[in-house]
Q: What sequence folds into this?
C-alpha cells in the first residue's frame, strides 16, 4: 500500500473566482425578484394557494432565517390583488334575543356606510321623535283619548247618581271609594231617623241601595278595562306618531340598501324596535345634554342601533393577507369584552372584538407555528375553526365549558380562509406524527431549501441576491472581492465547498456588519476586507469559550499531546456547537486491552454519558474487530474505551475511527503519533465514513498545534468523503501549502492506523496470515496469545486435580 | 255694561282691611295650593289665618247605617264602612292638616289656628266665613278637564258675601289683573286689586272689556281718575269682552298672578256657569268680589 499523501492546498478551500463574476460592483446587477433556490417551496405555495379545496392549508417549513415569511407574504400579496373575495362583517343588535347578536356580511366598503347611516339616523331620530310628540296633533289626540275615558267614567257615575237620587239616595265619596245612603234635605239619614221609617220603607231603601251598589260595582270593575283601553289607544297613537317620524328616514335607508335583503330585514326590525322604544328618544330630548341621565340615554340608544363593524375592507375588497404575530386564542377567534357598570361586568354586541380569523376571512392568515402551539388553547381553537369552517367567538372558559354564566353568543361567521403556518421542520414532523387532525387540515407542505449548488450559475445568482439584499436594506453595494468572499463564507456556512447557504437572515446580518466597517473606513463599496472583518469580528464576539478551552489545553490542564508517541492513545476531534458558532475541540481517546471474554466496554455508555449513536459506533467497531481478527476463534479480549477528561455528554460516531485505532494500538503495543488527530466513523468492514463539522475539527486541532508551533509532522486524518466539504480558514490552508500542517483523506481503518502508528497495516494472505511486522500481524498475534491463554485456562478448569496427580 | 253716570265714591283703601283669612283645608293637593296662597296673603296683610277642617257628618252617618257599604274605587269590592275606622282616618287627616298649618304659620311668622268642626261642609264653611274678611278655597275637581270641585260649586251657589279667593300656586312678582266695567262692584274690585298690587309692589293691569272706541276710552278715564286719586298708576288693556276664554288668554299672555273681578251675576245670584267655566281653565288665583 502506497503511503498516503496529504491533500493539496487546492482541495482545502474552494475560492471563488472573481474573474468569472463579470461586474465591478453589485450595483450593476439586476434585482432578484425570485427567492434564490426556493423553486420547490414556491411551487408548493403556488399550488396550495391556488387550490380551493377543504384542508389545503399550507405549512411552510424550514429553519428560521431562510426568508420563509418574506416569500410567503410576497407571493400572497401578489395573488391577493387578483382575488376580490373580501367582505365587510359586522355584528348587529338582535332585538328579539339581545344575547345572540346577529352577524351581517356586506360587500366591501358597505359596512362603513351602513355604520355611518345608522349613526346619523339615530341622531336624527333624537330630534324627529320628540318633535312629533310635541306636535299639537299628538297633544290633542292624546287629550281626546283621556277625555273619552273620563267622560265615560263620569257619565256612568252621573247616571248612577241620577238613578239614586230618584230614590232619595245619594252617592257619597268615602276615603277609599263610594257609598250610597238615604238622604233627606241634603243630609244623610241618621240611624235613628232610618229606624223611624216604616219597615217596608226601610226594606225598600235597603233593596235600592243594594241594587245601586251592584250597579256601582259593575261600573267600577269596568274602569280598569277602560284604563287599559286608554293605554292601548295611547300606545297605538304613540306608534302611529313614531312611525310618521321614523318612516321617511327609514324610507331613505330602504332605498339605499334595496339590493341587500339582509340589511333591509335588519332595518325593518330596527324600525319596529324604534317604535317600541320611542319613549326613550323622548326622554333623551327632555334631559339636557349635560345631565347624567340624558348622556346615559343617548349613549344607550346609540349603542342599541349601532353597527359594530368588525371587519372593514377598502372599496375593492382585495383578499386580505394577515400576519398574526401573537396568535393567542382570543387574538385568533376574537373576544367579547366587558365593561364595569355599578360593580358588575356587563357586555353587549358592541363589545365584540374581531380576531385574526375575522380579519383574514376571504383571504390568507399567516401564523408562526411555534407561537400558536405555545399559546394555550390556540391550536385547538384554530383547528376547530378550520374544521367547522366558521368563527365562533367564545371565551376560553366557554370553550371548555368552565362557566355557565349568561354571556353573549354571537352568531358564528362563515370562515373562508387559507391558513399558512410557518415554522421549523421538526414541528411539522411532530405534528404530522402526533396530531391526527394535522394532515387533514394542512395538506400542502412547502419545504424550504437551505442550500443551493455552487455552480457558475448558482454563483451568479448568489451575487445578484447579495446585490438585491444590499439594496433592499439600504446597504453599500459589494465589489467583486466582497461578493467572492461572501460566497466563500456562504459555502463555509453550508459546510460544503460545493454548496451555498440560502440562510438569508445570516447573509443580511453579514452584509450589515460589513457595511458598518466599510462606512467607518469611508468607502463607497463593501470590499473583501470588510466582509472578512465582519466574519472575524463575529467569531471574536462568540469565541470566549473556545479561547478558554484552548488556553486550558496550552496550560496542560486539558491534556492534549501534539508530538511524541503513545500506545493506546489517539487524538480525537469533537465539535462544540454554540448555536451561531461552532468550534472543534481535540480530546484524547484511550483504549486498554487485556485478557477477557470478548467484550469492548464503552465507558461513556457505562456511566450514561454517551449517546446512542456513540454507543452504536463502539459496537460497530467491536464487531469489526471480532470479524476481522477472530473470525474462527473466540475474541478473548476485554477492552475499554474512554474520552479522557470528558465531563459532559459524548454523542455521535465521528470518533469511532479514532477509538478503533486506539484499540488496535493497545492490542499491537504500537505507539501512535500524537502529532496527528483523527475524525471519521467506521463501518463493520473497516471503511471510513463521512462526519459533520469537518472544517471546525481541522481548525480546532490546527489552532492547538499552531499555538505550540507547527512542526510539519502535525495533521488531521479525515474521511475522504468529507473532502468536498472542506472550506478551511486561510491560515490553515497557508500552513498546509507550506508543508507545516497536513490533512490526510483516509478511506479505510488500515490507512488511518498505518498513518498513525507508522507501521504498515498489512494485507492478509490466502491463509489469512498478515505479513511479519505489520500492524495487523501484531494485533492478530496478540489476540492469538489471549486465545491460547483462554484455552489454557479452560483446560485448567476442566481438570483442576491435574496439579496434584 | 255701561259706565254709571255717577261714579260711586271711591272707597278708602284703608277701609277694606283684611284681618282674618279663612282657608278651608283637607289633605288634597288643591287644598295645599289654597293654603299656600292663603299664607302668602296673610303674610302680606299681616292677617290672622284661620284654618277650617269640616268632618263630613254625612260620611259619619253613612258609617252608622247598618246596611251601607263602601265600594272600593280600585277594587270595586263592597265592604262595611267602619265608623271607628272612619273616625281614625279623620283624626289622621286632622293631624296632617295641623302639621301643615303649623309649618306654614311658622314659616310665614303669622298668627293662626285650626278649627275642626263636624257637620255639612258648605254649611260650616259659610258659618265660619262670617268671622273672616277673605275666604280661600282650593279649586278641587279635575283641572285637566276644567271641572271644579263640588264643594266650591256649592259655595259659589251660596249666599257668601265675603270676598272669595280660589287659590292657585303662582310665582310672586307677577302683575295683579283686574276687570273693570265701570259698575259699582267694579270699583270694589279695583280697590281690592290696588290693595293687593300696592302691598306686593307688583304691577296692576286694568282690563277694560271693550275692544276700543269712545266707550273704552271713557271707562279707562274713569278708572284712571279713580286710581289717580289714590295716588296709584296702572296699565290699561282693552279686551274683547268678558268671556271666560278671553280672560284666560289674557291672564296667560300677561302672566298674571291674581285675577280680581266682581262675580258675574245672573239676576241676584252668581252666574255659576260662567264662573265655573272661568275657574276651570284659569292659570292663576281668582279673587271674586261680591
A:
Amino acid at each position: 500500500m502506497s503511503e498516503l499523501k496529504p491533500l493539496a492546498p487546492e482541495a482545502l478551500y474552494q475560492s471563488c473566482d472573481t474573474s468569472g463574476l463579470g461586474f465591478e460592483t453589485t450595483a450593476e446587477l439586476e434585482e432578484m425578484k425570485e427567492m434564490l433556490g426556493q423553486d420547490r417551496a414556491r411551487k408548493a405555495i403556488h399550488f396550495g394557494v391556488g387550490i380551493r379545496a377543504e384542508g389545503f392549508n399550507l405549512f411552510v417549513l424550514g429553519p428560521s432565517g431562510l426568508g420563509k415569511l418574506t416569500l410567503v407574504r410576497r407571493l400572497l400579496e401578489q395573488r391577493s390583488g387578483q382575488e376580490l373575495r373580501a367582505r365587510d362583517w359586522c355584528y348587529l343588535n338582535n332585538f328579539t334575543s339581545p344575547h345572540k347578536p346577529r352577524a351581517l356580511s356586506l360587500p366591501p366598503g358597505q359596512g362603513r356606510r351602513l355604520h355611518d347611516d345608522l349613526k346619523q339616523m339615530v341622531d336624527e331620530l333624537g330630534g324627529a321623535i320628540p318633535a312629533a310628540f310635541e306636535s299639537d296633533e299628538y297633544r290633542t289626540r292624546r287629550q281626546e283619548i283621556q277625555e273619552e275615558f273620563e267622560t265615560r267614567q263620569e257619565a256612568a257615575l252621573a247616571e248612577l247618581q241620577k238613578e239614586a237620587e230618584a230614590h232619595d239616595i245619594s252617592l257619597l265619596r268615602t276615603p277609599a271609594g263610594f257609598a250610597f245612603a238615604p238622604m233627606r234635605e241634603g243630609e244623610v239619614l241618621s240611624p235613628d231617623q232610618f229606624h223611624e221609617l216604616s219597615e217596608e220603607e226601610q226594606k225598600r231603601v235597603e233593596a235600592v241601595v243594594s241594587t245601586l251598589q251592584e250597579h256601582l260595582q259593575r261600573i267600577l270593575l269596568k274602569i280598569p278595562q277602560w284604563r287599559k283601553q286608554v293605554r292601548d289607544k295611547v300606545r297605538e297613537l304613540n306608534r302611529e306618531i313614531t312611525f310618521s317620524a321614523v318612516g321617511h328616514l327609514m324610507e331613505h335607508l330602504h332605498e339605499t340598501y334595496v339590493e341587500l335583503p339582509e340589511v333591509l330585514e335588519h332595518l325593518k326590525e330596527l324600525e319596529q324596535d324604534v317604535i317600541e322604544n320611542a319613549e326613550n328618544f323622548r326622554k333623551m330630548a327632555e334631559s339636557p345634554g349635560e345631565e347624567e341621565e340624558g348622556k346615559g340615554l343617548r349613549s344607550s340608544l346609540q349603542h342599541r342601533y349601532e353597527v359594530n363593524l368588525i371587519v372593514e375592507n377598502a372599496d375593492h375588497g382585495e383578499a386580505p393577507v394577515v400576519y398574526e404575530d401573537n396568535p393567542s386564542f382570543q387574538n385568533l377567534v376574537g373576544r367579547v369584552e366587558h365593561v364595569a357598570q355599578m360593580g358588575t361586568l356587563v357586555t353587549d354586541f358592541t363589545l365584540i372584538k374581531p380576531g385574526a380569523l375575522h380579519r383574514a376571512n376571504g383571504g390568507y392568515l399567516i401564523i408562526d407555528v411555534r407561537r400558536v402551539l405555545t399559546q394555550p388553547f390556540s391550536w385547538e381553537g384554530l383547528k376547530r375553526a378550520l374544521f367547522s369552517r366558521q368563527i365562533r367567538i367564545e371565551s376560553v372558559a366557554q370553550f371548555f365549558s368552565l362557566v355557565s354564566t349568561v354571556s353573549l353568543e354571537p352568531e358564528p361567521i362563515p370562515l373562508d380562509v387559507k391558513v399558512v403556518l410557518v415554522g421549523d421542520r421538526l414541528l411539522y414532523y411532530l405534528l404530522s406524527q402526533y396530531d391526527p387532525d394535522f394532515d387533514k387540515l394542512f395538506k400542502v407542505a412547502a419545504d424550504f431549501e437551505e442550500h443551493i449548488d455552487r455552480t457558475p450559475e448558482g454563483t451568479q445568482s448568489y451575487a445578484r441576491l447579495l446585490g438585491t439584499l444590499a439594496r433592499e436594506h439600504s446597504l453599500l453595494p459589494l465589489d467583486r472581492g466582497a461578493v467572492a468572499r461572501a460566497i466563500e463564507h456562504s459555502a463555509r456556512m453550508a459546510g460544503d465547498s460545493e454548496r451555498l447557504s440560502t440562510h438569508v437572515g445570516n447573509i443580511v446580518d453579514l452584509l450589515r456588519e460589513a457595511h458598518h466597517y466599510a462606512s467607518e473606513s469611508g468607502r463607497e463599496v463593501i470590499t473583501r476586507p470588510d466582509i472578512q472583518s465582519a466574519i472575524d469580528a463575529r467569531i471574536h464576539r462568540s469565541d470566549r469559550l473556545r479561547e478558554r478551552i484552548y488556553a486550558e489545553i496550552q496550560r496542560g490542564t486539558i491534556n492534549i499531546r501534539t508530538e511524541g508517541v503513545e500506545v493506546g492513545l489517539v487524538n480525537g476531534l469533537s465539535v462544540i456547537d454554540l448555536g451561531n458558532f461552532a468550534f472543534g475541540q481535540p480530546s484524547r481517546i484511550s483504549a486498554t486491552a487485556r485478557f477477557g471474554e470478548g467484550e469492548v466496554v464503552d465507558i461513556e455508555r457505562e456511566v450514561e454519558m454517551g449517546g446512542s449513536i456513540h454507543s452504536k459506533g463502539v459496537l460497530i467497531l467491536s464487531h469489526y474487530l471480532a470479524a476481522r481478527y477472530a473470525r474462527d476463534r473466540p475474541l478473548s479480549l476485554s477492552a475499554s474505551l474512554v474520552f479522557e477528561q470528558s465531563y459532559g455528554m459524548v454523542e455521535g460516531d465521528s470518533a469511532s475511527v479514532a477509538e478503533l485505532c486506539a484499540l488496535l494500538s493497545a492490542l499491537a503495543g504500537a505507539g501512535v503519533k500524537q502529532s496527528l488527530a483523527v475524525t471519521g466513523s467506521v463501518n463493520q468492514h473497516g471503511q471510513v465514513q463521512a462526519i459533520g463539522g469537518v472544517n471546525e475539527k481541522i481548525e480546532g486541532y490546527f489552532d492547538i498545534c499552531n499555538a505550540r508551533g507547527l512542526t510539519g509532522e502535525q495533521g488531521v486524518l479525515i474521511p475522504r468523503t468529507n473532502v468536498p466539504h472542506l472550506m478551511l480558514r486561510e491560515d490553515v490552508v497557508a500552513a498546509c501549502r507550506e508543508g507545516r500542517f497536513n490533512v490526510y483523506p483516509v478511506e479505510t481503518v488500515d490507512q488511518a492506523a498505518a498513518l498513525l502508528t507508522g507501521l504498515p497495516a498489512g494485507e492478509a494472505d490466502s491463509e489469512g496470515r498478515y505479513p511479519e511486522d505489520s500492524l495487523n500481524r501484531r494485533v492478530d498475534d496478540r489476540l492469538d496469545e489471549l486465545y491460547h491463554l483462554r484455552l489454557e485456562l479452560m483446560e485448567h478448569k476442566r481438570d483442576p486435580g491435574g496439579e496434584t496427580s | 255694561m255701561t259706565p254709571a253716570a255717577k261714579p260711586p265714591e271711591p272707597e278708602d283703601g284703608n277701609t277694606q282691611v283684611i284681618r282674618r283669612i279663612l282657608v278651608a283645608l283637607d289633605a288634597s293637593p288643591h287644598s295645599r295650593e289654597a293654603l299656600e296662597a292663603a299664607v302668602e296673603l296673610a303674610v302680606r296683610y299681616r292677617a290672622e289665618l284661620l284654618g277650617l277642617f269640616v268632618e263630613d257628618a254625612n260620611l259619619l252617618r253613612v258609617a252608622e247605617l247598618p246596611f251601607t257599604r263602601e265600594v272600593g274605587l280600585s277594587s270595586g269590592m263592597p265592604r262595611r264602612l267602619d265608623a271607628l275606622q272612619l273616625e281614625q282616618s279623620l283624626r289622621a287627616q286632622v293631624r296632617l292638616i295641623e302639621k301643615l298649618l303649623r309649618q306654614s304659620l311658622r314659616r310665614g311668622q303669622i298668627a293662626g289656628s285650626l278649627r275642626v268642626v263636624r257637620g255639612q261642609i258648605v254649611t260650616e264653611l259659610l258659618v265660619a266665613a262670617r268671622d273672616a274678611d277673605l275666604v280661600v278655597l282650593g279649586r278641587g275637581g279635575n283641572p285637566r278637564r276644567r271641572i271644579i270641585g263640588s264643594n266650591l260649586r256649592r259655595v259659589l251657589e251660596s249666599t257668601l258675601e265675603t270676598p272669595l279667593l280660589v287659590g292657585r300656586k303662582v310665582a310672586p312678582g307677577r302683575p295683579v289683573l283686574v276687570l273693570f266695567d265701570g259698575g259699582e262692584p267694579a270699583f270694589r274690585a279695583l280697590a281690592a286689586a290696588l290693595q293687593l298690587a300696592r302691598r306686593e309692589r307688583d304691577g296692576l293691569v286694568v282690563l277694560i272689556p271693550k275692544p276700543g272706541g269712545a266707550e273704552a276710552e271713557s271707562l279707562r278715564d274713569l278708572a284712571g281718575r279713580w286710581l289717580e286719586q289714590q295716588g296709584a298708576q296702572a296699565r290699561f288693556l282693552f279686551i274683547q269682552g268678558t268671556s271666560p276664554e278671553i280672560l284666560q288668554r289674557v291672564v296667560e299672555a300677561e302672566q298674571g298672578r291674581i285675577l280680581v273681578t266682581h262675580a258675574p251675576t245672573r239676576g241676584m245670584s252668581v252666574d255659576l256657569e260662567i264662573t265655573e267655566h272661568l275657574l276651570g281653565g284659569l292659570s292663576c288665583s281668582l279673587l271674586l268680589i261680591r
